[in-house]
Amino acid sequence: MTLGEIKYHVMFQTNNDADDIGDYQPHIIDYINEAYDRLVNVWDKQHTRFANVDYPRLGDDTDVPLTPEWTHRYLADWATWLVYRNGNPQKQQRGMAYRASFEAMLSQVADEGGKAGLDENGDRIIYKNFRNIPQ
To answer: Percent of the chain scored above 70 by pLDDT?
Structure first.
């Protein structure tokens, strides 16, 4: 997903018209980049906010996060949570599901070993760390 697609996904999840995205700028980009920074930290133990050249911040609508494709939609979940968290208690409660979704994705990335959980061909190493086998 591109940054533009992620932004429109946030607008959809918050029940806002996509044409109103200008009302949420630049905060929505900051929210998505906050999620991206958290994801990159778990994925590759780096931070985007320190202008890391490996993972530049997302700024242009055509920018694509440099993490696995399946993680991109979760960036919208975190941004949706941040949009909702400043609302009334009902909106905050609605946003908690999006926050939980993002946190679950981070846990999955961490459990799989992040970037280090790939073999030499870039394929996911399944069952790399067995935690329930007695030693």
So the answer is: 83
Q: Output the furthest CA–CA distance in the chain (Å, rounded).
A: 58
Structure tokens at 40: 């990159």
* Whole-number Å distance between alpha carbons of 87 and 60: 28
In a domain, 124, yes or no: no
| pTM of structure | 0.81
> How many CA within 13 A on the CB side of residue 56?
7
- CA angle, residues 30, 4, 32, in degrees to nearest 5: 25
CB atoms within 10 A of CB 116: 11
Residue 33 within a domain: yes
* Confidence grade of residue 126 (pLDDT, cut at 50, 70, 90): low
Residue range of the domain that includes 92: 3-117
